[in-house]
Specification:
Layout: E1 5-8, E2 14-19, E3 25-32, H1 46-53, H2 65-70, E4 74-79, E5 84-91, H3 96-107, H4 113-132, H5 139-147, H6 162-166, H7 170-180, E6 186-192, H8 196-207, E7 229-235, E8 241-248, H9 256-267, H10 273-281, E9 285-292, E10 299-307, H11 313-330, H12 334-351, H13 355-367, H14 377-382, H15 386-396, E11 402-409
Parallel strand pairs: 2-6, 7-11
Antiparallel strand pairs: 1-2, 3-5, 3-6, 4-5, 8-10, 8-11, 9-10
Helix pairs in contact: 1-4, 3-8, 9-12, 9-15, 10-11, 11-15
Length: 414
């Protein structure tokens, strides 16, 4: 059980406090409820751009990193389709340093022509290096466009098109900041060796006077898929690859946990079904994996595999469907389910040993609606059953609900 307290400031800032006297450190984790799904179709990549811009300094602190480093601290950030998360770790005695830094960049971020051009260059180079020039780099652009017809999950966090960042104006960037970087769009977790009363007092001191803003309301919809989709692309890659994606439930749906266990049964470890049959026995693939995206809204269950050199791609694809059919018809045993659940619960236990992980998780679950979800996860996984999995796969892993991307090596004909 992870204990925490929750306070909402008058300006809408949500503060979660988690006490841990076994460490001399504190974590200040700030989650902004803005991710790639909040962007406009013609200007994607802004959420990720701001992950970089937020380290460009602010009015009173032109260098964000230096004060933290001098205080013996460290920091980092990450962005996804649903939110952006920033964290600072410092010795408890220096708690006020990250708080005044975070408050200043929440309201007085250096967004000027020079800062934008520097970070624009960084982001554009990242786009080119990891998504244009890297083998299989544009896979997620292709898969997301196939799976999502209406939802802004249609593009990955890096953005849909490099031009969207290249052509972004200073005014557009400032507007994005003013729309989403506000106390009433933020969840702050202060955890570690600091008393609750002090955490509340200091949060009020540094953030209490920051005004709330009107957050843009966005509604996300996505129709049910009724027909199978296939796409072939030919690129300069070392091996042919197959990606099969299915729409799955949102993160708060009870069937999320069964879906997560299904992917572990299929591909986690050398005893998993896909590895045993398609890598070890058939030697059709050199590697194969199954996983979920765990998105706030409609997510994806994805199966991906690199086909063995010289192996027929169509036959390799048929073998994947053979295994899915066996799963639908024969189901799974309670022993198989128990084994996967034990692995998950062990991983969760190790993960919660980290103060930083606890802090990030508290902010994340609060963004879903209730931080106490963190204390319900073990129970939710324990309730997964073989019957529940059988019912799920017979609704989910169907040909007509599949999106298959064949990512193939170029030959003389292409």
């Amino acid at each position: 059980m992870i204990e925490y307290s929750k306070v909402v400031l008058k300006n809408g800032l949500t503060l979660l406090h988690h006490y841990d006297d076994t460490t001399p450190f504190v974590v200040v984790n700030t989650l902004y409820k803005v991710g790639a799904k909040h962007e406009e179709k013609h200007r994607t990549g802004f959420a990720h751009l701001f992950e970089h811009l937020m380290f460009s300094g602010s009015k009173n602190f032109p260098d964000f990193d230096k004060p933290l480093q001098e205080a013996g601290g460290e920091n980092n950030a990450f962005t996804n389709n649903d939110y952006t998360n920033y964290y600072d770790i410092v010795p408890a005695i220096n708690i006020e340093i990250p708080l005044c830094l975070e408050a200043d960049r929440m309201t007085n971020l250096n967004i000027n022509k020079k800062c934008l051009e520097v970070q624009r260059k960084v982001v554009c180079e990242e786009f080119k290096e990891n998504y244009i020039n890297l083998p299989y780099g544009n896979v997620w652009h292709l898969i997301r466009e196939m799976v999502y017809e209406e939802h802004p999950y249609q593009w990955p966090t890096i953005g849909k098109d490099l031009k969207h960042i290249e052509e972004a104006t200073l005014e557009e960037v400032k507007n994005f900041y003013q729309q989403y970087y506000a106390p009433n769009d933020a969840i702050m977790v202060i955890s570690g060796h600091i008393e609750k009363e002090i955490a509340i007092q200091l949060t009020e001191k540094y953030f209490g006077a920051i005004p709330a803003v009107q957050i843009p309301e966005k509604k996300f919809t996505e129709p049910e898929q009724l027909h199978a989709k296939e796409k072939k692309v030919y690129e300069d890659v070392p091996l042919n690859a197959i990606y099969i994606a299915f729409k799955m439930c949102d993160r708060l749906d009870p069937s999320y946990y069964s879906t997560d266990v299904v992917t572990d049964i299929l591909s986690t470890g050398s005893s998993s079904r896909l590895y045993q049959q398609l890598v070890k026995e058939e030697k059709a693939f050199v590697e194969i994996d199954a996983y979920i995206t765990a998105s706030d809204d409609i997510g994806m269950l994805v199966i991906e595999g690199k086909v063995s050199e010289g192996y027929d791609v169509a036959k390799a694809n048929a073998l994947i469907w053979r295994e899915l059919e066996k799963l639908r018809e024969g189901g799974v045993s309670e022993t198989e389910v128990r084994k996967c659940k034990n692995k998950m619960l062990t991983y969760m236990s190790f993960s919660e040993a980290s103060l930083l992980n606890r802090s990030i998780s508290l902010a994340y679950y609060e963004s879903l609606g209730d931080a106490n979800h963190i204390n319900e996860e073990e129970k939710n996984y324990e309730e997964v059953s073989a019957k529940g999995i059988h019912d799920l796969v017979n609704q989910l892993l169907l040909k007509e609900k599949s999106n298959t991307l064949f990512y193939l090596k170029k030959d003389k004909a292409h």
